[in-house]
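Sequence of PRELI domain containing 3A (Eptatretus burgeri).
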Amino acid sequence: MKIWTSEHIFNHPWETVTMAAMQKYPNPLSPSVVGVDVLDRHVDTVGRLHSHRLLSTEWGLPSLVKSIIGNCRTRTYVTEHSVVDPNKRTMELQSANITLTNLVSVDERLVYRPHPDDCQRTLLTQEAIISVKGVSLSSYLEAMMASTISANAKKGWMAIEWKISNLEPCFS
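Predicted 3D structure, token representation.
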């Protein structure tokens, strides 16, 4: 098992970042996400917005990984649950792969909240727990996947910035 963590600060208020994060896909920086389906969305009795989405992704697996896991499937699915709490000003998102779970599991948690020192900025904390099962070199594969998650997180931050640049005229 490998645990990856990260923090990022957006120089935008929480409301703006949250709106962009909820509309992050599609974007030109994440072409691997080929579909997003909303399975359920509702507001609970205390005003929190709950969303359950299914993300369809297309991965180009390296030949080495294909030979180790013995699978050339590239379409994978991720379930994503998010809760936006406007009173506490938090957005928590949890996701997990639902494809190839017999070989690998990736459980990710993201929390967006106002920066504690500057309410005009937003702090994002991320954590991913990666577990490769039943194959040799699992530690190597977990480290490789953590590296990919790290690179994709940076693309995700840039995608949110891209979305914000497209949202800004709406707030003027």
